[in-house]
């Protein structure tokens, strides 16, 4: 991600923390986090459907396998698509799968929807758009490419700001890769570095139709308020939609808020209804039958819960921020929180909570040598040093408060690699394994909270095997 605002002073006041009410029915263990479903849909699944990937190569191979086996839908949201050979192979996989789908049925049931950022995806003569135009030309009825343009980059600012820096005003930063009913949540972009030697996080949710439906609808909603790539590499808005930088900004943001909140609220309603039906059908003597979806005939009881957390401050949506601040606030004494980010630029509100709460913290950061901007030319080359400066300031404050034992900083260093992983792990007091993790696109920094479109999931589990996967 580009420079300037990545290291901008954090001058905004902290957002008031929304304190989670204790769950009176189930206050202990993993279920203590059920308050999150007051904000977003709750998806109960079996832990056997969750797989944690560990390497960029594994992530890349899984993307290709999932594309080749997709029958109904491929939905991919990323900051950008790179222009190298590995990225071209992904595009070729999409083309081959679409072609096979057409040949098998005469008319394809497979739909491909790709959401990228406009500014990042349009940079240079060869870019994300030129990579995808051939797909649009070959499969105009099956492929949709949406390019989100922040409403904050407009007027003179848009005309005068250099191309290299215009993305600092705001981005589409969500990373979701979805194939039929399988969903990959990650912080990785569709670029060769993220397929080879740029360490990130990746979680696969298998056979999870409700979660896949939610993220399909979310990407569709953002796509509807985005510029649509055409077969001649031009862009245009959907009929009747407010333009993001030519139209009225307030009207555009209100429309976007309405579309995204419709997705969140309708999914919440569906899941609450499903939860009520499942509860009643599991009661003795109930006439409602369970859906056979396991070898034993009955759907297994969920031991893992997934909560999608959305952050789109330009549209007035700050669910991820509220949940993250509440988790940091409510963490009890002797609980442990592991936090990692590729860019150590926590908001002032998050820093204050780390310094002022009782839990133990282990914060993993990129060392200067594995920062993605290390060795870059111009302004960008100074970014690793700027992060070191922020880190030293934070550590000095820890020492002044005598908190350096409770809050420990560590740097990730690996020869030949860069570090882009981000997330949070929560270990309850007395436990050696995490019961909750956050995984997705946010970096916990100024831009993630205030400027960009972000999404991650909170995964809560009481299954020891999955907890062990998350711990590793």
From TrEMBL:
What coarse category fits the chief subcellular location reported for this protein? mitochondrion
Q: What's its catalytic activity? A: a CDP-1,2-diacyl-sn-glycerol + sn-glycerol 3-phosphate = a 1,2-diacyl-sn-glycero-3-phospho-(1'-sn-glycero-3'-phosphate) + CMP + H(+)
Repeat listed as a keyword? yes
Looking up SUPFAM superfamilies in the UniProt record yields: Phospholipase D/nuclease (SSF56024)
- Cross-referenced PROSITE patterns, in alphabetical order? PLD
> For bias kind Low complexity, which ranges apply?
281-297
List GO BP terms, alphabetically: cardiolipin biosynthetic process
Q: Does the keyword Disulfide bond apply?
A: no
Name all PLD phosphodiesterase domain ranges: 168-194
Annotated pathway: Phospholipid metabolism; phosphatidylglycerol biosynthesis; phosphatidylglycerol from CDP-diacylglycerol: step 1/2
Intracellular or extracellular location(s): Mitochondrion
A cellular component term from Gene Ontology for this protein is: mitochondrion
Q: Please give the Gene Ontology molecular function terms for this protein.
A: ATP binding; CDP-diacylglycerol-glycerol-3-phosphate 3-phosphatidyltransferase activity
Cleaved signal peptide residues: 1-19
PANTHER family of this UniProt entry? CDP-DIACYLGLYCEROL--GLYCEROL-3-PHOSPHATE 3-PHOSPHATIDYLTRANSFERASE, MITOCHONDRIAL (PTHR12586:SF1), CDP-DIACYLGLYCEROL--SERINE O-PHOSPHATIDYLTRANSFERASE (PTHR12586)
Q: Which family does it belong to?
A: Belongs to the CDP-alcohol phosphatidyltransferase class-II family.
The UniProt function text for this chain reads: Functions in the biosynthesis of the anionic phospholipids phosphatidylglycerol and cardiolipin.
Full protein name: CDP-diacylglycerol--glycerol-3-phosphate 3-phosphatidyltransferase
Q: Where does this protein come from, organism-wise?
A: Rhynochetos jubatus (kagu)
Native organism taxonomy: Eukaryota, Metazoa, Chordata, Craniata, Vertebrata
Its gene? Pgs1
